[in-house]
Amino acid sequence: MSHYRGRFAPTPSGPLHFGSLVAALASFLDARHAGGEWLLRIEDIDPPRCPADAADQIRHQLEAFGLHWDGPTLYQNGRDGTYQAALERLVRLGLAYPCSCSRKQWRDYPIYPGWCREGVREPGKPVAWRLRSDLGLRPVVWKDRLFGEQRFDPASLGDVVLRRKDDLWAYQLAVVVDDAEQEVGDVVRGFDLLDNTPWQRQLQQALDFPEPRYLHLPLILGKDGQKLSKQNLAPALPTTDDAVRPLLHAALTALDQAPPTDLAGAPVAEQLAWGVLHWEASRIRPEPHRTITGGAPPSD
């Protein structure tokens, strides 16, 4: 694709935090610096984990930081037919199979051992659907824009779940289908998803989808050494202007863009304009994670 189209795709299991801001800002700046589009997708394929107001809160937080997206927001919940069509195609290709095994049954193995590849071991029990990682593209090789050449054998990672036993769709299939449908050519996301890319490249090849470029970002850790996440109760991003301005500057700094010190108090629009003009992904140090300095980002 000659035209840049990127996206930010949070799971609405809670409000955005500083780590989310760094990822969103990087994808936004990468798109706007290239004169491209930046889309918002809400990955709500697991409704039990998603409070009713979380998606609206995320949208409000992004707007408070001036991160305005193009076009309508895509919600994954309710796209069963689209994902089912992709799964059926994989089944016809012999690349997806039903699996009755529980995690408890294979807990002594480093990865799922593929017991149901040739037929369900326990007929009559609920089944998940898995990808035959041993039959697709192997090895998977791609050049990450920050971390350079990556090489994985997906079979060493195991047969990933595509649809769960509770009939909810799994991340790997949904993200590949949606990126293709939205014509996303550039994916900017955290380093924790780098080793998900081999499965996604297998799916892209099997489904005859384009393969996006990838830029994986260092994960932001708290002072306790833990990844900033909703599960770890990272503070929610504030939405008041006086709190947003210094946090936006801190996010630019966390991305190694070296914003001027006096920009920290500037209006959001001015900071973003500076960020778009001076954005260089190559400035980011290629490290899996980094610890934030100073106090924890405040909450509302």
Structural commentary:
The protein is α/β, with parallel strands linked by helices and 300 residues long. It has seven helices and twelve strands. The chain has helices at residues 18-33, 54-64, 80-92, 171-181, 197-206, 241-254, 268-278, and strands spanning 5-8, 37-42, 74-75, 96-99, 128-131, 140-144, 148-152, 161-163, 186-190, 213-217, 219-221, 289-291. The chain has a three-stranded parallel sheet. The longest helix has 16 residues, at 18-33. The termini are far apart. 37% of the residues are buried. The model has no long low-confidence stretch (mean pLDDT 93).
Describe the sheet with the most strands.
3 strands, parallel
Radius of gyration: 20 Å
Query: What is the helix/strand order?
Result: EHEHEHEEEEEHEHEEHHE
Report the sheet-strand fraction.
15-25%
In the predicted model, the low-confidence regions spanning at least 5 consecutive residues are none
Structural class: alpha/beta
* SS elements, strand count: 12
* Helical segment count: 7
**Quick check: average pLDDT?**
93
Strand line-up across the major sheet: 1-2-3
Classify the helix fraction into a percent range. 25-40%
Q: How would you describe the shape?
A: elongated
Search tags:
single chain, 300 residues, alpha/beta, three-stranded parallel sheet, 7 helices, 12 strands, 29% helix, elongated
List the helices and strands and how they pair.
Elements lengths: L4 E4 L9 H16 L3 E6 L11 H11 L9 E2 L4 H13 L3 E4 L28 E4 L8 E5 L3 E5 L8 E3 L7 H11 L4 E5 L6 H10 L6 E5 L1 E3 L19 H14 L13 H11 L10 E3 L9
Parallel strand pairs: 1-2, 2-3, 9-10, 11-12
Antiparallel strand pairs: 4-5, 5-8, 6-7
